[in-house]
Amino acid sequence: MKPYGWLPALLLALTVINYPNPFNPRAGELATFECTPDATQEARLIVYDLAARLVLRHPLNLQGGVKNRFVWNGYDNDNELIGSGVYLYRLMAGSVTLGKGKVWVINR
To answer: Which of 11-14's residues contact partners 24+ apart within 8 Å by CB, and which partners?
Structure first.
């Protein structure tokens, strides 16, 4: 095992925040995902439900050194409103996870 083999993974990780959390897409609220990568890169935001089913896959072109924002309206890849619950998201570049988290959806 290489010493410091974890270092490249740590350097690639981003802090991704999402707000508001929870959000209510039925009432027209949008969830905003935000991060500031060091380098410009192609990426994708992937959202799953807790059964690990793909809900959303959205390509992104992240610009290095600036705050990048993506707004999600709570609709899936088939343009259907998702149900209330907790969803998991990952920001991916190739096979590398840049960031991940949870978003809570409450439809009222």
So the answer is: 12/93, 12/96, 12/98, 13/97, 13/98, 13/99, 14/91, 14/98, 14/99
Sequence-separated contacts (24+) of 56-63 with Cβ below 8 Å? 60/91, 62/35, 62/37, 62/93, 63/37
Query: Which domains can be identified in the chain, with CATH numbers?
Result: 17-105 (2.60.40.4070)
- Sheet arrangement for strand 41-48: 54-62, 41-48, 85-93, 96-105
Q: Report the C-alpha gap between 57 and 13 in whole angstroms.
A: 19
For 30-68, the pLDDT digits (tens) are 999 999 998 899 999 999 999 999 999 999 999 999 999
Burial of 99 (0-12, 13-18, 19+ CB in 10 A): buried
State the pTM of this model.
Answer: 0.83
